[in-house]
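Hi everyone, sorry if this is the wrong subforum. Our group has a chain we'd like a structural model of before ordering constructs, and none of us has done structure prediction before. Sequence below.
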Amino acid sequence: MKREVRLLLSKAVDSLTLSVEVFNRPYDRGRQTAVLIFLDHAFEMLLKAAILHRNGRIRERRAKQTIGFDACIRVGLSNGTARFLSHEQALLLQSINGLRDAAQHHILDVSEGQLYMQAQSGLTLFRDLLQSVFSRNLAIELPERVLPLATHAPTDLQMLFETEVEEIRALLRPGLRRQTEAMARLRPLAILDSAMRGEKGQPGRGELLKMKRDVASRRPWTEIFPGVAFVQITTEGAGPKVELRLTKKEGTPVYLVPEGTPGASVVAVKRVDELGFYNLGLKQLAEHVELSMPKALAVVKELRLQDEPECFKAFRIGKMTLKRYSQKAIERINNAMPRLDMARVWEAHKPPGKRKRT
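Answer:
Right subforum, don't worry. Here is the predicted structure as tokens:
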């Protein structure tokens, strides 16, 4: 194992341990925020370790910093050798990251039931990835007794949301003047719902106000939070062996969508026409960047665009392999051209038959 991978794994386990430790504190000061921050950090370190272990990259060319959380998920979902995430796992990671953002940057009030669900399903996912990517058992890193503890653990996500909405509705009763508390309780529900629907970003004040009105008017929660209706909690084992996962119900697939798609994050429940996204052959790509096909291919190799799922995908149709490029590939080439030495690029990547004989 590479030294950098080993160090990232160590940091990941450190933060996971702290997250569990804080969750199990017998007092609440700062507990919600600390659990989410440490859990989020544990996964970012684990994702980067997994990417490097699968010979991927966690730093873009000439970048001063490593890639962020969303980009790590995107690489983990790619179709290349670095792939190690399922779409359902990505949805859980997005919800944890969204809750961490809200906890760190604004006001968030997560119920004990939802905090337990995030912590226990996060621990299960960490265990799954550690085993599938590194063939390591989490029990080696943590005592088997170490896990988030709850006196009343939720086993049904729909029941959890129904209870949450009723408690928020109680805060909105006339005369209580607890609007701010109600908004803080609505925010984590909105974040989880958005993550399950593949929508990016924190809910805006206008969205929360509309949700507040819908809750107060006793609109069914399944209409207010439709994304959660597609998700269920599955559990295995009991006691210290409990495993909890969020899974999509049958018939509600999720798909990878292009970075920059308005309103979408890393994955979405909306079907994306992949051949429509990767809509360029090499000839069309070359025409768009005003290069010959051989020179366009040389630039593609120089920039390693075929390693980037945003730019390239190979489709297997019968016995034929169809290599396709996205509009993102045009942008990447056009941005890189001013700094490329085309003579050197051509010499390094031109077809073997055109190389100088020595």
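For your construct planning: The two ends are 39 Å apart (CA to CA). Strands lie at 231-236, 243-248, 255-256, 267-268, 312-317, 320-325.
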